[in-house]
Design a protein that fits this description.
The chain is an alpha+beta fold. The protein contains 4 helices and 6 strands, in the order αβαβαββββα. The strands form 2 sheets. Strands 1-2-6-3 form a 4-stranded antiparallel beta sheet, with helices on one face. A two-stranded antiparallel ribbon has the order 4-5. A hairpin with a 2-residue loop joins strand 4 and strand 5.
């Protein structure tokens, strides 16, 4: 049986952990930034570039990134920590299932939106798209993320809202090619949905 992948091993370029090397594939953009999103990092795998491009092509989306977490390495006790690398994981879902499934990786597609009607339409559209993906059999959900309202006397409320699409992906083969193929398939599905409903934006 293949050993679990070490996400910190820079030499892992053919398995799942390699996806994490391309966690942020666009340049930072302000939460209220209404400008065009930056071009994806062309050093990322083509499937990742395509998925990020499909997401940032939606009117109202200002920034996107793809992260991955090998869930069997996350202890349930770690989910109680107030900060750190596990703070934004889907805590309730993991606790409810008693932890990860075998060989399960969480693909987290995080994005931000414009603070206007266009941004709200983008969030609504992606909420529908994720629901449809889940209805069709994918273990996907959309969540909101935020930071504490104040830190060291400074207000953060209203400036930290983010969204993430949680995609629980399990593949017993632990083959990176399978993961990238699935990512490419989701990019195509999102492109088709955006094109089909372009008149709704």
């Amino acid at each position: 049986m293949t050993e679990p992948i070490d996400p910190n091993d820079p030499l892992e370029t053919t398995q799942r952990a390699a996806l994490g090397e391309y966690a942020d594939t666009t340049q930072p953009a302000g939460l209220g930034d209404s400008g065009e999103p930056a071009e994806p990092d062309q050093d990322a795998p083509a499937e990742v570039v395509r998925l990020i491009a499909a997401l940032t092509a939606i009117p109202g989306v200002t920034r996107a990134q793809l992260d991955n977490t090998y869930l069997p390495e996350v202890a349930l006790a770690d989910l109680s920590q107030p900060g750190g690398p596990h703070a934004d994981l889907p805590i309730a879902a993991l606790r409810r299932s008693g932890g990860a499934l075998e060989n399960e990786v969480l693909l987290s597609l995080e994005f931000r939106i414009q603070r206007n009607e266009s941004g709200l339409r983008a969030a609504e559209f992606l909420s529908w798209w994720v629901r449809e993906q889940s209805r069709l059999g994918e273990n996907m959900q959309l969540r909101t993320l935020g930071q504490p309202p104040m830190v060291a006397g400074e207000q953060q409320l209203g400036r930290t809202l983010r969204f993430t699409i949680d995609w629980f992906y399990a593949d017993t083969s632990e083959d990176m090619a399978n993961v990238l193929s699935a990512v490419g398939g989701k990019a195509l599905a999102l492109e088709l949905a955006t094109t089909m409903y372009k008149d709704a934006f």
